[in-house]
């Protein structure tokens, strides 16, 4: 990681303006990392902006809105309407994503120099033109990386930003369970020292009751195969985030060692999210279905097959 920090320091010194961009539908990890990076870059006396397709961040999540109101620092966001004004010796820093098609605004990559910091499993759609790319899928979150970067530079992050970073780590580890190492806990400790607030963090992590009930209804219909593998089939159109959330939640139940959640992403695409506590290698099965991942965290997307065909296929492979 220190190699990355040295490289980042170098580029921050070299460019005048910085745009930080995450993935579509930003989550707390991507937002926390973006805000943390902004503050770090500002400590170099430079200008940093967060790119958002939505006119303002406040539209995206009412809890985040609350956090922003409490934040003392002004964070400047740019959108598709005004980014051109700051394209002058500008570096784009992409966080929490590395595939061009998942970017908030993919076109920007072609206009300015780009670096990438991510913790997802590398896929073939990665940004080919990046000046450098740091991807470590063993790290819990980008928030963890940015926390260590701040610590490395002796930058004391704003309390609300530290809280969002802590929330980002918590979300990406499903409550300090998945991909959690001693470094993850240490990052949490650093953030608490910087002033992260556990009450505000709880506010940020809240979800609506209806969302909870919806997920619970899918989980209610899940079933066990081969004694310790939970499967869940969602017949309504869903998204990869929901598939992953359910897969992670299924792992918290007694006797469940691995989980597979299958759902339609659009008319012709079915997504599968697979999780394991580590003994069963779910990536092996996802690879056989054209996907990829790690032992404990893998996924695939399949075109022109029904949910049922895919379900049967997975059971056969198991
Ligand atoms: Mn993340």
Give a verbal description of the structure:
- It is a single chain.
- This protein has 318 residues and is α/β, with parallel strands linked by helices.
- The chain has two domains: 2-204, Alpha-Beta Complex (inorganic pyrophosphatase (n-terminal core)); 211-317, Diaminopimelate Epimerase, Chain A, domain 1 (Roll), CATH 3.10.310.30.
- 39% of the residues lie in helices and 21% in strands.
- It has eleven helices and twelve strands.
- Strands 3-2-1-4-5-6 form a six-stranded parallel β-sheet, covered by helices on one side. The protein has a six-stranded mixed β-sheet with strand order 7-8-9-10-12-11, with helices on both faces.
- β11 (292-294) and β12 form a beta hairpin.
- α2 packs antiparallel against α5 (159-172), α5 runs antiparallel to α6 (182-194) and α5 (159-172) crosses α7 (198-204).
- The longest helix has 15 residues, at 28-42.
- The model has no long low-confidence stretch (mean pLDDT 91).
- The protein binds manganese (II) ion (MN).
- Manganese (II) ion binds at residues 29, 96, 119, 141-142, 172.
- Residues 29, 96, 119, 141-142, 172 line the site of manganese (II) ion (MN).
